[in-house]
UniProtKB/TrEMBL annotation:
Residues 141-369 form the Sigma-54 factor interaction domain. PROSITE patterns: RESPONSE_REGULATORY (PS50110), SIGMA54_INTERACT_1 (PS00675), SIGMA54_INTERACT_2 (PS00676), SIGMA54_INTERACT_3 (PS00688), SIGMA54_INTERACT_4 (PS50045). CDD domains: AAA (cd00009), REC_RcNtrC-like (cd19928). One of its GO terms (molecular function) is ATP binding. It comes from Nitratireductor basaltis. GO terms for biological process: regulation of DNA-templated transcription; regulation of nitrogen utilization. The modification 4-aspartylphosphate is found at D55. This is DNA-binding transcriptional regulator NtrC. It comes from the Bacteria. It is found in: Cytoplasm. Keywords: Activator, ATP-binding, Cytoplasm, DNA-binding, Nitrogen fixation, Nucleotide-binding, Phosphoprotein, Repressor, Transcription, Transcription regulation, Two-component regulatory system.
Length: 490
């Protein structure tokens, strides 16, 4: 049953007020709109409204200054915050201030209506929010693209939970930055953040590194040593490159996650543990499961909240912001202030960035150190990237394949290029599952997009059971919000 409510809307933009008024009224809500914070506060203080939708920037007051007063006066009143300042810190400040949800502009109307429905249906219990807004100038993640907005919103939801998060992304996409952001802006920020890279530790030492060892546990163990679990007590343990963990260590890790305790190598007394686990990988763990290299039960223990970090080529519009940020960092380190010409930025945005953000950061540091010019030209950028690596940018409507090419032929061409990229060698094992996953993700995403996120219609369209579709959405990490983002309001 749909719950109708009295919605208070505050936005300085008359067009947005009109759109929201019409959309909310159409589904049966009573709506009052205003262009300023003073009128909104007057309504709230008078006990009006079941839900508030407000922009951050208002002509008379910032919503982040108003929100604490609203939460103090009416702690059960859900507040949805909108903003065109689409940064990670905006999402975090909204969460810290007690907002029910944060929506970056432009937003999808169907998504907004869904959030309104959830907020009105929830029991009226105040959210605990005793963490002060701090470090507002720190910007651990950069970018305002739609892909990054989805990441920011997911992170904002995860900050005040201890749910285990699995971050999947190519090398150089910033997986550890995301893990640190979850820790530093979350409820465990006062505890330690401990990172361990599974690929960098010898296989026979991983258990000792994770759980510690007792004196005399093995040859060379002359003293007791604490492990990463003990070091991270009360904080966050970041397990990087989890796909490289040997099978015997996986078994022990699974036992810790199931029982909440561990024993040191050579020890007998169980030790209780209180850590949040954030894992990361650039590998296809399902493929490793099929090869018998990764435990399926451990995968589901770690994959509670899957988070896919997009490669830089999928968010090229963030490159100018990233370049400015890295130049600022270089300037703080004593290097000369610099900028890149518009043509140079365009060349960067056409480059595929196989090394992702890490490669871009290295390029900017190189440009800062090696070139005396205040403005870096396109010629310099091309020479550093290698002009053959920068491909012409195709219009969005133009396909890289002829229209008469079938799906099978397109896959065949892709596979030919894939095999040729390895020269005389063969691709890594598990190709079958990797290719299926490559096709499955866009297929499910396209079906959800075509049905406006309606999972019943999408399951009918695909010809699969609804429960099967839900399982696929969860396993593949398909972003339903991304799929439903069709009608945009700006």
């Amino acid at each position: 049953m749909t719950i109708r409510g009295n919605i208070l809307v505050a936005d300085d933009d008359a067009a947005i007020r009109t759109v929201l008024n019409q959309a909310l009224s159409r589904v049966g809500h009573q709506v009052r709109v205003t262009s300023n914070a003073a009128a909104l506060w007057k309504w709230v203080a008078a006990g009006e409204g079941d839900l508030v939708i407000t922009d951050v920037v208002m002509p008379d007051e910032n919503a982040f200054d108003l929100l604490p007063r609203i939460k103090k006066a009416r702690p059960d009143l859900p507040v949805i915050v909108m903003s065109a300042q689409n940064t990670f810190m905006t999402a975090i400040r909204a969460s810290e201030a007690g907002a029910y949800e944060y929506l970056p502009k432009p937003f999808d109307l169907s998504e907004l209506l869904s959030i309104v429905g959830r907020a009105l249906a929830e029991p009226k219990t105040a959210k605990s929010n005793d963490k002060p807004a701090e470090n507002s100038e720190k910007m651990p993640l950069i970018g305002r693209s739609a892909a990054m907005q989805d990441i920011y919103r997911m992170l904002a939801r995860m900050m005040q939970t201890d749910l285990t998060v699995m971050i999947n992304g190519e090398s150089g996409t910033g997986k550890e930055l995301v893990a640190r952001a979850l820790h530093e802006f979350g409820r465990r920020s006062r505890g330690p953040f401990v990172a361990i890279n599974m690929a960098a530790i010898p296989r026979d030492l991983i258990e000792s590194e994770l759980f510690g060892h007792e004196k005399g546990a093995f040859t060379g163990a002359q003293h007791r040593s604490s492990g990463r679990f003990e070091q991270a007590e009360g904080g966050t343990l970041f397990l990087d490159e989890i796909g490289d963990m040997p099978m015997e260590a996986q078994t022990r890790l699974l036992r810790v996650l199931q029982q909440g305790e561990y024993t040191t190598v050579g020890g007998r007394t169980p030790i209780k543990t209180d850590v949040r686990i954030v894992a990361a990988t650039n590998k296809d763990l399902r493929s490793l499961i099929n090869q018998g290299l990764f435990r399926e039960d451990l995968f589901y223990r770690l994959n509670v909240v899957p988070l896919r970090l997009p490669p830089l080529r999928e968010r090229a519009e963030d490159i100018p912001d990233l370049v400015r940020h890295f130049f600022e960092l270089a300037e703080r380190e004593g290097l000369q202030s610099k900028r890149v010409s518009r043509a140079g930025l365009d060349a960067m945005m056409r480059y595929p960035w196989p090394g992702n953000v890490r490669e871009l950061e290295n390029l900017v540091r190189r440009l800062s150190a090696l070139y005396p010019q205040d403005e870096i030209s396109e010629e310099i950028v091309l020479s550093e990237l290698g002009s053959n690596s920068v491909t012409p940018q195709l219009p969005a409507s133009e396909s890289v394949l002829p229209e008469n090419v079938s799906l099978g032929q397109a896959v065949e061409q892709y596979l030919q290029r894939h095999f040729s990229s390895f020269g005389a060698e063969l691709p890594p094992p598990g190709l079958y599952q990797r290719i299926l996953a490559e096709v499955e993700y866009p297929l499910v995403l396209a079906a959800l997009a075509a049905t406006q996120g309606n999972q019943i219609k999408a399951s009918e369209l695909l010809g699969v059971n609804r429960n099967t579709l839900r399982k696929k959405i969860r396993e593949l990490g398909v972003d339903v919000f991304k799929a439903t983002r069709h009608r945009q309001v700006s």
